[in-house]
Structures are given as C-alpha cells and as structure tokens.
Write a structure and sequence with these properties.
By secondary structure, the chain is mostly helical. It is built from 18 helices and no strands.
Length: about 425
C-alpha cells in the first residue's frame, strides 16, 4: 500500500469525510462486541470466576498502557514519512485478524483466546492514533466538530448493527442449523466481528491519503524510528510552548479514564449489582448504541453553538450525575435509565474532546500530537479498570466500585477549567512556525 502524501490538499471533501466516518462504523464492531459477547464469553466460559474477572480488567489495563507508550512514537514516525494510512492499515488488519482468530479460542484453549484478545485490544487502541490524526487533514476548523460528531454517530450505528447480528446469531442460530456445541455461536460472533472490522475499513484505507509531505522519506525505518523517538523527546521538552494543549491533555488523561472504565465495566456492574443474565444485558447495549447516535450529533451541534469547552462541561456534569445515580439505584429499570443517559453523553464527550485536540494541533504533526492524545487517553487508563476490579473483589459491592470512578471525572474537570481553546490554536500556529 503506497504511503505517498496526497497532492489534493482540499478539505471538507464529502468522499473523504464519508470514508473517514465509515472507519468508525468498521471498528465500532469491536468496541460493541467486546463489552457484550466477548466479556460474557471470557468470564462465563473461557475463564470462570475471579480468573476471568482478572484477565478482563488487567488485560484492558495492560494493553492500553502499552498503546499509550507506543502511540506518540509511532505517530511521530508516521508524520516523518507521511504514512499514517500505512500504519492504520497494519494495525487494523492485525486487530481484525486477532478478533477473527478468537473463534478458535475454545474453553479448552483459554490462553490462546486471551492472547488473541490482548493482540486485538492493543491494535484497537493503536488505530485510534492514526485514524484521529486524519481529522484535521480532512476538515477545517469550522467543520471539524460536525465531522467528529458524525464519525462517532456513524460508529454507533455500525456497532449497533453488528450487535443486532450477534443477537440474531445467539437467539436463532440453532434454528438455522448452527451448532451450539462448545460455544460455537458466541465464537461465531467474534469471527464476524473481525470480518466486519476489516471489510468496512476498506473505504478509509483506499480513499483517504496523507496530505502533509514526508520529512524523512529516504531514511531507513530504524533511522526514522530513532528520529521519531527524538521528536517525541523534543516535543516533551518544548511542551511549555503548548500550555493550553498540555492542560487539556492532562485533564483528558484523567476524565477519559473514567469514561472508558464505565464503558468497559458496565456489564460487570450490571451482573454483580442486579445478577442480570447475559440475555438481559445484550438489549441494554443495543439501546445504548442507537441512543448514542443522536446524542453525539446533538452535542456536536451544541458545541458549534456554545463552544467546545462549554459542551465538554455539560458532558462531564452529566457523567458525575450518572455515577452518583449508579451508587443509589436499586431497580433494573433504573439501570436502563442510567444507561440511556450515559449513551447520550458517551460519544459526545469523546467527539468534543477529539475536536478540541484537532483545533490545537499543528497540521504537519497530527500523527505525533494525536499520539500524545492517545497517550493522554490511555497512559493511566489501566488504573480505572484495575481499581474497579479490585474494589469489587475486595468489597463485593458494585455500588462502591462504580462510585470510586467519580474521582476521575471531578479531578479531570477541575484541571480543564482554565482551558482557553483560542489561545491553544495560536500556540499551535506559533509552535509550527518556530519548528519550520
């Protein structure tokens, strides 16, 4: 796959925006199935009891930490060679292949399943750096918030449709002549998830090109890697030049850990709090996918009206209310209401955050800076799942486990309070001029 920068530098092209949004449609199959079918199969069949709980919590934590370390380095390499698309292709295919190979992870081969899960999750985290880095290249400042929101909205529809397929397979597979022996039906869902991710990624991989010219195209890969590491070190040394970006990344590091932990541990919370059966959980997540679509689009529209920072304040306030309600609720219908409210702000929080990052990023260094965005989103994201898991194991209370996540939102919210996005945009331009 060629990695030559595109000569067409025009932004807001419908063809590119469509392809970019379709990638969210593609990889959202993983994010949807992994918090439903994957976690339920892992903890209910592959590794039962505390072993499954530990493999899930620690597996997410370890892979996201590795992604955090690698993302800015790989992003700097991608910027130097202007080959974000090539890196996106490689991480996509590795993640999709590992997802499909989980089909062969039967209860008799638990560690093969865990290995494929770790590879799939690591690459799912890594693709975000390269995918997100294309946002400032395909959309201008005025369009960025809308495009980011449509990306998340499209992803929720794609993930929701993949979940519908999984529900149909699990519910009617046997009547279609498919075997239920050795957990064939949930394993088939994992196979379909990997295929979905790979196939629907093709529009992005074929239509969207890097638009910044390469800076080190003739250097060897090892030389480029060394340069990338040096560039990351240099940026860290010059971070005071990007004060607003630094404030945002630190705040995002903390509150996004809470967001991702709520998403990844929602099924664990429901099963421990209400003893909900797997069949009762899947419709909840299906509802979340389709409620999240209008939520993401609406918050993207609101962000254009009142500003991205104000929209983010609204999202974080709602997250605080969600966690407090999670501690207080006693009935299953209340969990449904809490899940619906969560869905409304889930995509919006991430979409607005991605837009803020794009607005304060020098365009020729999107890979590196979105690598830092991924690092900020993942560096300590092992803390949330591990903290939730350990509190649940030690107290036996899902109430205290969910309430403990409140600290991530409150602290992260306090840190971004002085954020000035307009100043951050000026700092990005000044930093780019100085680098040039």
């Amino acid at each position: 796959m060629a990695s030559v920068a595109s000569p067409n530098l025009a932004k807001n092209q419908p063809r590119e925006i469509f392809a970019w949004c379709m990638y969210d449609w593609a990889n959202s199959a993983y994010s949807t199935i992994y918090i439903t079918v994957l976690v339920l199969y892992l903890q209910g069949a592959v590794l039962e009891g505390d072993a499954g709980l530990t493999a899930w919590g620690w597996g997410i934590g370890i892979t996201t930490l590795c992604s955090a370390i690698l993302s800015p380095i790989l992003g700097a390499i991608a910027d130097a060679r202007a080959n974000k698309r090539l890196w996106l292709f490689a991480t996509t295919m590795m993640g999709a292949s590992a997802s499909a190979l989980m089909f062969f992870g039967t209860p008799e081969r638990p560690w093969f399943f865990v290995a494929m899960f770790l590879i799939a999750n690591l690459n799912y985290e890594l693709v975000q750096t390269f995918y997100n880095a294309f946002l400032p290249e395909i959309a201008d400042d005025q369009k960025m918030s809308e495009v980011s929101a449509w990306g998340y909205g499209t992803g929720y529809v794609g993930g929701g449709l993949m979940l519908v397929i999984a529900i149909l397979v699990l519910s009617y597979g046997e009547s279609w002549g498919l075997s239920k022996e050795n957990y064939f039906l949930p394993r088939l869902c994992l196979l379909l998830m990997g295929i979905w991710w790979a196939v629907f990624s093709l529009p992005m991989l074929l239509m969207v090109r890097d638009k910044s010219p390469p800076r080190r195209s003739e250097a060897s890969l090892w030389a480029t890697a060394a340069m990338g590491l040096q560039q990351v070190k240099s940026t860290l040394g010059e971070i005071s030049r990007y004060k607003m970006l630094m404030i945002f990344l630190i705040g995002f590091l903390i509150f996004n850990d809470g967001v991702m932990t709520v998403i990844s541990q929602a099924s664990v919370f429901a099963k421990n709090k209400f003893q909900m059966e797997d069949s009762a959980l899947v419709p909840v997540f299906l509802m979340i996918q389709f409620v999240a679509l209008p939520g993401a689009i609406f918050l993207g529209w609101i962000a254009n009206k009142i500003g991205q920072k104000n929209a983010l304040h609204i999202c974080l306030a709602i997250w605080v209310l969600v966690l407090v309600s999670g501690f207080l609720i006693q009935e299953v219908w209340q969990f449904w209401v809490m899940a619906a409210v969560t869905a409304l702000v889930m995509g919006g929080t991430q979409s607005v955050s991605r837009t803020i990052m794009g607005l304060m990023t020098p365009e020729s260094r999107t890979g590196e800076f979105f690598g830092f965005f991924n690092l900020s989103g993942k560096a300590f994201s092992m803390l949330g799942p591990i903290m939730f898991t350990e509190i649940l194991k030690r107290t036996g209370s899902a109430n205290w486990a969910i309430l403990s996540l409140l600290v991530f939102f409150v602290v992260g919210w306090a840190i971004i309070a002085p954020l000035n996005i307009a100043r951050g945009r000026r700092e990005a331009r000044e930093g780019l001029d100085a680098a040039g």
